[in-house]
TrEMBL record:
<dbReference type="InterPro" id="IPR013078">
    <property type="entry name" value="His_Pase_superF_clade-1"/>
</dbReference>
<feature type="binding site">
    <location>
        <position position="58"/>
    </location>
    <ligand>
        <name>substrate</name>
    </ligand>
</feature>
<feature type="active site" description="Proton donor/acceptor">
    <location>
        <position position="82"/>
    </location>
</feature>
<dbReference type="GO" id="GO:0005737">
    <property type="term" value="C:cytoplasm"/>
</dbReference>
<feature type="binding site">
    <location>
        <begin position="8"/>
        <end position="15"/>
    </location>
    <ligand>
        <name>substrate</name>
    </ligand>
</feature>
<dbReference type="GO" id="GO:0016791">
    <property type="term" value="F:phosphatase activity"/>
</dbReference>
<dbReference type="Pfam" id="PF00300">
    <property type="entry name" value="His_Phos_1"/>
</dbReference>
<feature type="region of interest" description="Disordered">
    <location>
        <begin position="74"/>
        <end position="93"/>
    </location>
</feature>
<protein>
    <submittedName>
        <fullName>Fructose 1,6-bisphosphatase</fullName>
    </submittedName>
</protein>
<dbReference type="InterPro" id="IPR001345">
    <property type="entry name" value="PG/BPGM_mutase_AS"/>
</dbReference>
<dbReference type="InterPro" id="IPR029033">
    <property type="entry name" value="His_PPase_superfam"/>
</dbReference>
<feature type="compositionally biased region" description="Basic and acidic residues">
    <location>
        <begin position="76"/>
        <end position="93"/>
    </location>
</feature>
<feature type="binding site">
    <location>
        <begin position="82"/>
        <end position="85"/>
    </location>
    <ligand>
        <name>substrate</name>
    </ligand>
</feature>
<feature type="active site" description="Tele-phosphohistidine intermediate">
    <location>
        <position position="9"/>
    </location>
</feature>
<dbReference type="InterPro" id="IPR050275">
    <property type="entry name" value="PGM_Phosphatase"/>
</dbReference>
Amino acid sequence: MTRLLVCRHGQTLWNATGRIQGQTDIDLDEVGRAQAEQAAVLLAAQRPDVLVASDLRRAQDTAAAVAGTTGLPVHTDPRLRERGYGPWEGRTDDELAETYPEEFRRWRAGQPVRVDGVEDLADVSKRMTEGLLAAAERAPGGTVLVITHGGAARRGIGALLGWPDEIVHTLGALSNCHWSELRSGRYGWRLHGHNLGT
C-alpha cells in the first residue's frame, strides 16, 4: 500500500485578499510561513519517505519547512502547479463577476469556462494525475508527501479516484497547509481523509 498525502501550500497575501493566484509566483506571507512551520511538525509525524512539490515559490517554501523538519530533499515537479488562470490572475471574485459574468458563474458552478489563457480542466486533471503518480512511484509501498495548490489538488485527487467532474466539484477546498490522504491497494486509489491538519 502506498500512502499519498496531498497538501496545499501556506497562505499568501493573495489568498488573504481573495485574489486568484493561478500560476503567478506569489510568496508565502507571515501567516503562511507560520502555517508551514506548524504543518511541518504534523507532516513529519506522518513519516514521509519522499517529498515532492510544485515549482512555484509558495509550494517550495512550504516544502522547505517540511524538509527542515524531516531532513528529506525536495523534489520539484512543474506538473503540480496550480491551474493557469491567465487574465484572471490577480483579480477578485467581484472583479471577475463584473468583467466575465457568464464565465464566472460557470466557473463557480464547477463547469468548464472558455476564456483565452484559462487552462482547461481536463488538462489540469491530466497533468496533476501524471505528477501525482510520478510522485507515488518514488516510494512504492511508502508514504509520499506532495505540496501543491488547492484547485490543482482537487482536480488531481478527483482524477486519481476516477470521479466525474460534477463529483470533483463537490470536494471541499483544502485549507492552507491541510492535506488529503489517499492510499493505493488492490482496488486502486481510495480517499482516507480530507482537509486534515489543525
